[in-house]
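User: Hi! I have a protein structure encoded as tokens and I'd like to know what sequence might fold into it. I'm fairly new to this, so please keep things simple.
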């Protein structure tokens, strides 16, 4: 738990599966080992992510850095294949794992996953086989290098050391170091005979541009404090022909005949990437589970050092770091430096995705967008209980300028105690203040929606982002959802009935396949908008809504109702609460009672108070407590 409170101290593993330079059997071995690693080797405080690479789509994040082990297992099993994955969350932090799969008669899920992944890999391999030119293969390597360069930029803002586990067979290293063995001998003979057209300088001497790009890519990863551990998934006694370039495959038999010692199978490339980023290269094993066990042990001992920079160079600038110890002969592995936060306009999509997920999962990062939130449970029969959610973003927290459109992103995750995401919401809204608020009377934007979760303790993680300015705000709200009990009454804290004309209202789409659940804040069958915080004007009247559940008591319109309240200030002193009157009562067949109250508080100094409210209906007494905030200037 201590590590969870210190974001930079948490281990972060990024599992990257190469679907282009790897055969299906090796990829399947990597998936099995990764699944075992997630289930058995990760500590409770560890964060992990899953990504894939292929030459058609580059590097794609399947699951972002998260504690949710079920999500990670699902990501490893499906590798983001559209027909299999249930991950639709823009930040890749949640999935609808309860959705029913479309069954294939006579085929179990493991077979279905394997077949789909095999088809995905073979589609890439088929493209490579059709492109039998060396230049095409070189282009594939360029795509790999470019994708890892983008990954390095994306990881700059992620705190702590990132352990990147790269599962691959590697690419033909002849393009880096040049030809050797029989091929080198043939090219020498061609030069001696004057047949210069038979010699390709890039394959004889290696591609200098490719070497430079690869070196720059590894430096970028090291600068982002990303250590790449390369894992050769081909195993012992495997056919490596699929990882070789076109010319290498054609000359492999000749090289073997003369006993060539140079390895062009991809191992040199994997070893180079690991060595240049401070990682390790694992080879010659069919037991990848033991390799990942060694990885977990190797990364379990480390120190976390912190310091305060004296000055800044400018947005996005890099600062070198040098760490020394007095002990002679000690070998240190530490980050090469750090990057200053770049402006929002220059951040890549991957950077924004990583940084937003980090803010949601750990709370680490810039938290400079103010908003208020309300989240209350509503007991109903069934396995999952609804949570009514309201977020209100005042316009003075936004880049709110008439004629200048803005884009707001909102994310809500209901996280259980084990780190799994039980439900989530996501919403993107584009607003032109000139059209949405022509009279300039709106206070801001009010989002509302419903989460559905099992009974128990949950943390509701909320994130609001302004795309244009890059400002972001996060809140963690702890909620205990009681199990449904038809024999026990339940009283929710009171909420303030908001003036709907003062806010722009946006209903959030449900994260589970875009569904929209019924909003539980309702009166007489119609939804109402509560204020996100129990804030009142200390001198003016307000409308409150009180919701009670008494499932065992039938609705009785003639039943007497008594409501009492008391108010305590921050010093523990009782102060006059003010007058409460009952304006309307709505009784439903399921035992829900909704009370519309008129509340006129006494003249109170601005500040926070504890409001205790009790409801007595025909001898049944229920109580609840709430934080009452008196607005400044009231």
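Assistant: Happy to help. Inverse folding works backwards from shape to sequence: for each of the 634 positions I chose a residue that suits the local structure. Here it is:
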């Amino acid at each position: 738990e201590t590590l969870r409170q210190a974001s930079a101290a948490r281990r972060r593993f990024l599992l990257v599966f190469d679907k282009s330079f790897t055969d299906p059997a090796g990829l399947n071995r990597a998936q099995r080992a990764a699944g075992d690693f997630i289930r058995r080797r990760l500590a409770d405080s560890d964060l992990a992510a899953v990504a894939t690479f292929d030459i058609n789509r580059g590097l794609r994040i399947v699951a972002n850095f998260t504690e949710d082990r079920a999500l990670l297992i699902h990501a490893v099993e499906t590798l983001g294949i559209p027909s299999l994955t249930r991950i639709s969350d823009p930040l890749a932090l949640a999935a609808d794992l309860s959705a029913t799969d479309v069954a294939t008669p006579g085929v179990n899920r493991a077979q279905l996953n394997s077949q789909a992944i095999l088809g995905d890999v073979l589609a890439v391999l088929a493209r490579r086989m059709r492109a039998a030119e060396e230049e095409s293969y070189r282009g594939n390597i360029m795509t790999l290098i470019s994708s890892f360069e983008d990954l390095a930029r994306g990881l700059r803002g992620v705190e702590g050391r990132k352990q990147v586990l790269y599962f691959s067979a590697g690419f033909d290293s002849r393009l880096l170091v040049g030809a050797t063995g029989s091929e080198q001998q043939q090219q020498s003979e061609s030069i001696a005979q004057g047949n210069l057209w038979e010699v390709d300088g890039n394959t004889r001497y290696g591609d200098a541009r490719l070497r430079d790009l690869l070196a720059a890519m590894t430096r970028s990863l090291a600068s982002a404090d990303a250590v790449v551990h390369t894992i050769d998934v081909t195993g012992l006694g495997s056919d490596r022909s699929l990882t070789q370039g076109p010319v290498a495959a054609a000359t492999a038999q000749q090289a073997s005949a003369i006993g060539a010692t140079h390895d062009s199978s991809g191992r040199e490339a994997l070893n180079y990437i690991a060595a240049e980023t401070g990682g390790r290269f694992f080879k010659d094993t069919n037991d990848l589970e033991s390799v990942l066990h060694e990885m977990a042990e190797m990364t379990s001992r480390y120190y976390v050092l912190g310091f305060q920079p004296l000055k800044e160079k400018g947005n996005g600038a890099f600062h070198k770091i040098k760490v020394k110890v007095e002990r002679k002969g000690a070998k240190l592995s530490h980050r090469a430096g750090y990057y200053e936060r770049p402006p929002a306009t220059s951040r890549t999509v991957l950077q924004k995705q990583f940084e937003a997920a980090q803010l949601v999962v750990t709370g680490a990062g810039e938290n400079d967008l103010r908003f208020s939130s309300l989240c209350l449970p509503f007991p109903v029969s069934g396995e999952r209980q609804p949570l009514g959610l309201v977020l209100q973003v005042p316009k003075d927290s936004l880049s709110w300028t008439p004629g200048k459109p803005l884009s707001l992103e909102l994310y809500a995750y209901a996280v259980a105690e084990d780190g799994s995401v039980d439900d989530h919401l996501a919403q993107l809204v584009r607003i032109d203040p000139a059209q949405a608020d022509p009279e300039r009377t709106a206070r801001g934007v009010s989002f509302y929606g419903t989460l559905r979760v099992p009974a128990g303790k949950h943390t509701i993680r909320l994130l609001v982002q302004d795309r244009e300015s890059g400002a972001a705000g996060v809140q963690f709200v702890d909620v205990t959802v009681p199990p449904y009990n038809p024999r026990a009454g339940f009283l929710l804290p009171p909420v303030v009935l908001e003036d709907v004309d003062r806010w722009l209202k946006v209903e959030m789409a449900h994260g589970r396949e875009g569904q929209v659940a019924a909003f539980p804040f309702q009166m007489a069958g119609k939804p109402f908008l509560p204020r996100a915080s129990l804030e009142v004007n200390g001198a003016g009247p307000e409308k409150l809504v009180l919701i009670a559940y008494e499932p065992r008591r039938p609705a009785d319109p003639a039943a007497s109702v008594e409501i009492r309240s008391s108010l305590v200030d921050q010093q523990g002193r009782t102060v006059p609460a003010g007058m409460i009157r009952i304006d309307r009562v709505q009784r439903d067949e399921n035992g829900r009672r909704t009370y519309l109250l008129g509340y006129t508080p006494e003249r109170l100094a601005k500040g926070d108070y504890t409001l205790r409210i009790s409801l007595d209906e025909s001898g049944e007494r229920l109580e609840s407590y709430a934080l009452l905030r008196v607005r400044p200037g009231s």
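A useful reference point when you look it over: Residues 89 and 95 are 7 Å apart (CA to CA). Feel free to ask if any position seems puzzling.
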